[in-house]
Amino acid sequence: MDLSSALSYPFKSIPKVLTIVLVITISIAFFIALLFNSYDWIAYFEALEIYSQYEYMPQFDPPGSEFFIGILGLFVVLLGQGVWLSGYGISVIRHVLEGFENLPAIKFGQNMMDGLAVIFASIWYGIAILPVFFLFFFLMGLFASPYGEPGLGVLMFCIGFIVAIPFGFLYMWSFIVGMVRCAAEGKRGAMFEIPTNFGIARRDWKTMVSLFAYQILVAIIFWFASQAISFVLQFVALLFVGDGTNLNSMLIAFVVFMLGTLTVSIIQQFSNMHLMAQFAYNTGIMVGYEDEFDRF
Questions:
Q1: Contact indicator for 266, 21 with CB cutoff of 8 Å
Q2: Distance between CA 22 and CA 18 in Å, rounded?
């Protein structure tokens, strides 16, 4: 895999990256501004401080409709951007597999549908693993019971622990395989085919280990980048915050801070998508190509 290509990939479409960051930031900031200006929060917190000292709390009118609209809108935006970014990641993988080194066009409806499929697939993977956990704990309880052989409970736990580590990694990687197959084959149902995806992860486990190692390395690189940017933005934000009594100034500081941190986060996500496309290429999962992969 080519780490430098993955790291440089988002910067080849940096205007689009910054546009995505700006739209998300403005959407979040709008509803936070609605929350800030829906109530006299400064007076309310000052009253709380007085109450903590003198146990006297002045009467305040309850928040108006703007407060609840802000809460609901903020929830919808945060949930929506997570779903959309997950779905757009599928388009990024497919675009790279098609040979393009720039970000794909934004298709909001398709991206949202792909994102919802990713969310439901993750839930499906969580549900499907539950019988394995129930079986493991049932056997643990059976062998550890007073009627079992001494030491069998400990032995069962050790065996289960040894088996669970590689199985857990393969199961987690099978979800990644499902996303890659969805991008390559254009079928959202590919994400839900756990036996097939698990078989691919098992067959190409060496490539999966390589992908996992590169993703950890990317996470470390961007963690240092985010720490450096956050350190700088903290000083910039302090210029706007002042004494902390102006909520609008605090909102500006929040927007400045979020622009930096969200940019790093999204660039990291797109770099990871490029690595996943490289994994697909190395394992033969190409656009329009289908194969009968081994199952369990």
A1: yes
A2: 6
